[in-house]
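Changelog note: in this version the structure field was regenerated for every chain. One regenerated record is shown below for reference.
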Amino acid sequence: MKLKLLIAAAMLSLALPAAAEFTQVADAYEIALSDLRLPRNDGGTIAFKECKTCEYKRIRVGADMAYRLNGKNVSLKKFREAMATVENREDKPATVLHHLERNQVIAVSVNL
């Protein structure tokens, strides 16, 4: 019994250094659709507020930017058109994915 416990403790101690190597690559923000300002073109910036009283954050969009509407990738033009028709924007959440190392937004996702 003690041998099994020693082996288990040794295995766990070997796993601890591997867990310490993880680094955060991206932040995801869930915001109200009313607090989101989309870019006008593919190479622009996106602005959003993390909370009602927070200031707007302006971040560049990446070249590989993904606009997801109901789980499907769409163009910026179609995404903007769909967002223009949404009523009760305060009640609809949007998810913004911010790549920290590149300091770019790489995805915006909305489910209507």
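Spot check on this record: The two ends are 56 Å apart (CA to CA). The chain has a mean pLDDT of 87.
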